[in-house]
Amino acid sequence: MSKPKQVIVVRKDLNMRKGKIAGQVGHAAMMFLTKQATIEEQKLTVTLNIPQHDWLTNSFTKIVPYVNSEDELRSLIQKAKDSGVIVHECIDNGLTEFKGVSTLTCAAFGPDYPELLDPITGHLPLL
Asked: If residue 35 lies in a helix (H) or strand (E), which one and from where to where?
């Protein structure tokens, strides 16, 4: 298999400011670690699968494409889940841009191998 990557798909229809996009992508990129972590006595423990370990110890490659709607992003999320690909939804609390409404802004797919991610996200244009 080739080197793993992480794909973070952003919703372009929300017209987020560049800084907001950067923040949401940053949140999404870290979610696979935080969702798998346990913390005891100020010690963080994370159990990684092989592609996650390879990704963290090598290139940290991230690809950031976009979709034009929430429905399109939800469809990709479901396709990933159906394929057994780890995906994390990034839902903003709405404190700065979305008038207090929790909003799905992006989703992180992987880290995983391109052979598994590309059938789900490989057709998307880069942000």
From this structure: helix 18-36
Task: Read off the pTM.
Answer: 0.94
pLDDT classification of 1: cutoffs 50, 70, 90: low
- The whole-number average pLDDT for the span 70-92 is 97
Name all domains of the chain by residue range, CATH numbers in brackets: 5-121 (3.40.1490.10)
Query: What six digits make up the tokens of 108?
Result: 């992180």
Q: How far apart are CA 102 and CA 19, in angstroms?
A: 18
Strand stretches in the chain, DSSP E? 5-11, 37-40, 43-46, 62-63, 66-67, 87-92, 103-112
Cα distance between residue 12 and residue 94, in whole Å? 16
